[in-house]
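Need residues for this backbone.
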């Protein structure tokens, strides 16, 4: 019985670092892709809480910006944002600071023919 316990302990000492090393390598190589989102079609730019269970989001879907409402019951695209808004966001680097300004700009703009 003591020989089996020693053999099991030796196997544990040898293979546990190997498993930890493989897990580390997997997270190091694949983790960056998970954090960056890879080449996802849908990217959430900004999420603003409306209530505790509903949000207003700015999402880019296949290169086009949209305002999306999200709640427990449903997710709904409310409107498409003009590309100027996203270009302004890319220049300034912060959508959060100018969210209401951009939303008012979009709502008050004249309809395009």
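Answer:
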């Amino acid at each position: 019985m003591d020989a089996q316990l020693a053999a099991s302990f030796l196997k544990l000492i040898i293979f546990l670092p190997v498993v930890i090393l493989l897990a580390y390598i997997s997270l190091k190589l694949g983790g960056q892709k998970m954090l960056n989102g890879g080449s996802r079609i849908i990217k959430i730019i900004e999420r603003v809480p409306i209530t505790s269970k509903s949000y207003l989001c700015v999402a880019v879907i296949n290169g086009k910006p949209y305002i999306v409402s999200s709640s427990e019951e449903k997710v709904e695209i409310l409107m498409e944002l003009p590309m100027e808004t996203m270009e302004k966001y890319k220049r300034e680097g912060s959508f959060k600071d100018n969210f209401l300004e951009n939303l008012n700009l979009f709502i008050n703009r004249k309809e395009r023919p």
